[in-house]
């Protein structure tokens, strides 16, 4: 059986999270967590599920972009794709007409991520593997063959990447066993979205502490006095030895970021996330330099377009924590490139997750990073947000504030059909009711 791809469907799935201010921050005050959900059908009945994450309005634009890519996918066999996955990545990202819409950024790249995530899911299912985490990608040469090194060979060649993976062969089994028994460390963002009241913040923090959480992220950036009050409150609740991070979601200019975060230094944040425009590499470098004496690092990546941007952030020492995103970059293929570059620059990877399905997807990437690339947990943790997991057929499992390795074959992207139907925009029942209000 060739596993020929015979169809691709794409759906606009939205959750009305803005009603309760879940996910709110200084720039995104009313996010409706949404997914562009892709299903690939094959001639043997096997399906691949993929998605990318959006915030509500505009999801239909990404749906259109996926439709524009459809012709490059349907008709191919899975074997053709994975035997030259780098070539297939290039086919999607370098189409002579569509690349004008990016290249490798914005709506077209989100669409590429959704499609490629579905292909990775299909591949893992076809092989009966829990992947694309460590199990599906054990052969270093095969891993390398999935990465498009164009534009990054000045910092990472294929040979260097292969060396990194070969060096990590030692101790792989122990690390895999360690992950299976203890899981990968996580931090929570669920307690302190910007729209939450102090009362809510306190309750969620108390619950999280009881459930073993030791690392917390707080949204900041709208009002300095309010930030000082909320950060003091949360620091008081979690005590001096737990970890606190702050996230401004691109709210400030460079100088403003430095002065604002300096005022918040008293609560001892480990990092300030997205202090300014996600495209301002040199601005991030200036902020990093200014905040280093205060012991505060800079984290960024959830809106970093592609591997080229990450390359420059690393070259410019502009961030101290790399926040890969499973749905912003060009799927596993491009995330692999960033994991390897981050390893070369010795910058820890602390992925962005949450949203719709990002935790489900990114768990594969962090396991791969630890077992096959970095072999190191110091300074590393993965974001966790406690929303919308119930809509997935293999939801993420958290135990004692750690991601436990997934067990089902695939890339954990499959959503429950009943959830998709109810939340499809605008015809789903959830939206029919909301729109009538
Ligand atoms: C709009 C999103 O909820 C955003 O605030 C998420 C984010 O910045 C994070 O999880 O980090
Ligand atoms: Mg963030």
TrEMBL record:
Instruction: Supply the SUPFAM superfamilies for this chain.
Output: Enolase C-terminal domain-like (SSF51604), Enolase N-terminal domain-like (SSF54826)
- Domain Mandelate racemase/muconate lactonizing enzyme C-terminal as annotated: residue spans: 198-294
What biological-process terms (Gene Ontology) are attached? amino acid catabolic process; carbohydrate catabolic process
Q: Which UniProt keywords apply?
A: Lyase, Magnesium, Metal-binding
Q: What EC number(s) does the entry state?
A: 4.2.1.68
Taken from the record, one Pfam family name reads MR_MLE_C
Q: Which residues cross the membrane?
A: none
Reactions mediated catalytically: L-fuconate = 2-dehydro-3-deoxy-L-fuconate + H2O
InterPro entries to which the protein is assigned, alphabetical: Enolase-like_C_sf, Enolase-like_N, Enolase_C-like, L-fuconate_dehydratase, Mandel_Rmase/mucon_lact_enz_CS, Mandelate_racemase_C, Mandelate_racemase_N_dom, RHMD-like
Q: Which CDD domains match?
A: rTSbeta_L-fuconate_dehydratase
> What Gene Ontology terms describe what this protein does at the molecular function level?
L-fuconate dehydratase activity; magnesium ion binding
Q: Which cofactor does it need?
A: Mg(2+)
Which family does this protein fall into? Answer: Belongs to the mandelate racemase/muconate lactonizing enzyme family. ENOSF1 subfamily.
Provide the protein name: Mitochondrial enolase superfamily member 1
Q: What is the lineage of its organism?
A: Eukaryota, Metazoa, Chordata, Craniata, Vertebrata
């Amino acid at each position: 059986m060739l596993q020929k791809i015979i169809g691709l469907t794409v759906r606009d799935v939205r959750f009305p999270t803005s009603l309760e201010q879940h996910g709110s921050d200084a720039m995104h005050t009313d996010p409706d967590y949404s997914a562009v959900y892709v299903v690939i059908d094959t001639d043997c009945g096997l399906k691949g599920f993929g998605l990318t994450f959006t915030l509500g309005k505009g999801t239909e634009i990404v749906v259109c972009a996926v439709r524009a890519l459809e012709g490059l996918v349907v008709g191919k066999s899975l074997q053709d794709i994975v035997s030259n996955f780098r070539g297939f990545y290039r086919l999607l990202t370098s189409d002579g007409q569509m690349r004008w819409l990016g290249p490798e950024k914005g709506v077209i790249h989100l669409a590429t991520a959704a499609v490629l995530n579905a292909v990775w899911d299909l591949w893992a299912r076809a092989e009966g593997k829990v992947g694309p985490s460590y199990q599906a990608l054990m052969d270093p040469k095969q891993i390398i063959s999935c990465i498009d090194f164009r534009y990054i060979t000045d910092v990472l060649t294929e040979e260097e990447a292969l060396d990194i993976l070969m060096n990590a062969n030692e101790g792989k089994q122990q690390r895999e066993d360690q992950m299976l028994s203890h899981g990968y460390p996580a931090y929570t963002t669920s307690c302190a979205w910007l729209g939450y009241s102090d009362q809510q913040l306190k309750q969620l923090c108390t619950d999280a502490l009881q459930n073993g959480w030791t690392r917390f992220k707080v949204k900041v950036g709208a009002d300095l006095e309010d930030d000082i009050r909320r950060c003091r409150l949360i620091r008081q609740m979690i005590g001096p030895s737990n970890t606190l991070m702050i996230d401004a979601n691109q709210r400030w200019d460079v100088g403003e970021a430095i002065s604002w975060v300096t005022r918040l230094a008293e609560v001892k944040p480990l990092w300030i996330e997205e202090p300014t425009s996600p495209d301002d590499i040199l601005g991030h470098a200036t902020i990093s330099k200014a905040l280093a004496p205060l012991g505060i690092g800079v984290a960024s990546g959830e809106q970093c377009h592609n591997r080229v941007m990450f390359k420059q952030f690393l070259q410019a020492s502009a961030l101290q924590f790399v926040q890969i995103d499973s749905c912003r970059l060009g799927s596993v293929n491009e995330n692999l490139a960033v994991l390897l570059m981050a390893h070369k620059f010795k910058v820890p990877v602390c992925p962005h997750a949450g949203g719709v399905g990002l935790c489900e997807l990114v768990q594969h990437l962090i396991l791969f990073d630890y077992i096959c690339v970095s072999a190191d947990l110091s300074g590393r943790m993965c974001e966790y947000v406690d929303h919308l997991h119930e809509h997935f057929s293999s939801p993420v499992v958290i135990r004692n504030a750690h991601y436990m390795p997934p067990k089902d074959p695939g890339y954990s992207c499959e959503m429950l059909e009943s959830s998709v139907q109810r939340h499809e925009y605008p015809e789903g029942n959830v939206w029919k009711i909301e729109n009538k209000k």
